[in-house]
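re: the backbone from monday

yeah here it is again, tokenized this time
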């Protein structure tokens, strides 16, 4: 997770935004812990054989990196 946040932070920096890596990691960890007992809509789509929005989400980050 830290590696992904680091990559997103690099893209953000290239776009002129600075992320506080420690605060971002802590925030993501907090969200994960609070929602550990829940299933995301993307997980439900995946397990039911539906297309997920992962390409759209990751694609937006990749497009910013180009």
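seq for it, each position gets an aa:
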């Amino acid at each position: 997770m830290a590696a992904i946040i680091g990559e997103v932070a690099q893209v953000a920096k290239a776009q002129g935004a600075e992320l506080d890596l420690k605060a971002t990691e802590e925030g993501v960890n907090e969200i994960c812990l609070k929602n550990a007992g829940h299933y995301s809509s993307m997980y439900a789509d995946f397990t039911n054989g539906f297309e997920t929005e992962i390409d759209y989400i990751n694609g937006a980050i990749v497009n910013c990196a180009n």
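Helices lie at 2-14, 21-34, 41-47, 54-65. The two ends are 22 Å apart (CA to CA).
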